[in-house]
Amino acid sequence: MVKGLSCSLFMVLVLALASEVVGQDGTSCAPLAPTRMSAGLVSLVAFQVPAEGLLTGANVVNLMPIASSVGQAKRVAPGKAFLLSLLLPGLGERTCGASTRGWALTATEATLWASMVAFRLYGHWRTQDYRAYAASKAGVSPEGKSHRYFVDIGNYASIDSYNAAMLRERNLAKVYQDTETYFWRWPSEVERIRYAHLRVSADNAYQRSLMIVGAILANHLASAIDALIRQNLTNPIPANAIGNAMLIVDPNDNRRGPFELPDEFNYHTAYQTNFLSQTSDAVTRSRLCGSCNNVFNPLLSWDASRNQYWPNRGTPQATTAAPPYYPIETTFSEWLASDYATPQGVYAPQFAGAKADGIVRACQDCHLTRSSGFAADPAFNPLERDCRTTGCLPTHDLLGANTWLPQLLLNADWRLNALSDRAYLEQNRLATQSFLSKAATLRVELLEEGNNKLARVTLINESGHKLPTGYPEGRRMWLNLRAYDQEGNLVQEFGAYNPTTGEVANDTKIYEVLQGITPELAGLLGIEAGHSFHFLLNNTVIKDNRIPPRGFTNARFDQDGLRPVGATYQDGQYWDTTDFIVPTATERLVVTLYYQTASSEYLEFLRRNGGLDGEALHQLASETPNTPQVVQIAIFPDFRYYFPLIFR
Questions:
Q1: Per-residue pLDDT tens over the stretch 208-226
Q2: Among 360, 394, 428, where does a domain finish?
Q3: Does 510 lie in the same domain as 379?
């Protein structure tokens, strides 16, 4: 019913069945930088987690994914991984089986060294420039002069004006006694200011090179600690998977986040997870979300001899959330195969918030609304995020599509009620409704074909994943079309919803994924084959006509959990068109796109199989109905009004 709840319950069940602790291997990541970070920090082992300040508190888990080859990590001698990564960042990770993360840390090391050398060279060249400029314009003899001298000549027009100023300040120690050796005189303020800019740029380059040296040292330490934690895990870490909430817990209260904090912040450890700023790599940032938005069933493996997923008898490999394990939910993988997961991203200003360019890429760009403002209490002296020069402030609204849960939490009969948070929950419900309306664009036109009239409805997916997405626990979208004659009489309706039974008429297009149980597995288990809501028993997809996102190709989506079933989409297609034959008297059309979090069929399944909680939820649904939410409305003809309206 609720994605986060489903993910948590799933992992509790898996851990109980498998009795194995699993971890995640972050890949393509930026290193821990030696700067302080903002509030809203997370305790993560992967030192580059782009958490966007998502969680706060000690010992919060590392939500970085595994991304290497399928398999188990190797056990190494105590302390070996630590020393190897201390010597060369990433080397220890690779000995622990986290090869992709290891290479990422090594690549970061190389990048930092290259940056340090580049700044040193640039500083050297600018130093030569400002010395030569001072010699040609101010008559300076650069040889044997200290850095202080070159600062002084940029602040005063001549040695005479400088010495006079020092005498007025009674600072005799700084007076240049040998005026011939230390002579300078600028012909005008223009030359002096030009020189000062050259000298400052050289100094800045040297300062940046020193900062990078600090980052290099921090990268060595960060990698060594990371490798030490991995090597000390009781069980090997599976590889090449993102999902199933596989986490590595940092044993220390090391909090990390994307923003810089002032040096005087000393309330708890605070490390910046990206050396320069929030990382621009969408895949790196979104792996955090993929931890819970990809869910695989570790109890079912692909059996080539049976040509289907089959119980794997709880082998050790069953704890890895990677193919060939049965995919239950693939929201992250859907996004990863879309245009949103590219460096170019997608222009979607409706999701971009205050982000000036309107481009969205990572999950956080849409679901953590970009705004401007301060990230922390004024007592912490936070930097203002203006979404232009200092980056955006991610709002922790975590909006999705579930408007029913905030209403359930306000039901006094539910033991989990949150009546004290009524104002927030109502605000969240309204914000979710608004967010949901941005996920699709709906169009309708009335056509005449021979003696028939045709209502053509086009639904465009504006989201970064399938529409709808998530676990198929009764989530669905459908088209409701009403046809009216010239007098405004309803002449036909498609996709009518019965609020009493919770059923949708089967004369319309319903976008959903239906999973089920094959006859072979059903025979083994002694249950009925076909469509099923059994979380851990489903081993096949019966229907998946959900609309793919921008960037869809059949080749990219040709994998279990992603490919359409019972529907056909062409490469590049992120919309669906449905034709309805309507009466010839039709003159006006109203099409409504509805979304429902959980179908009545699913709630009935929980009532029969979910124990006391299933019974309780069914009762709550009768008191607080799971009313379908309006996503979009399209009307034909398209009435447009322009103000002022003038009537005669």
A1: 999 899 888 888 888 888 8
A2: 394
A3: no
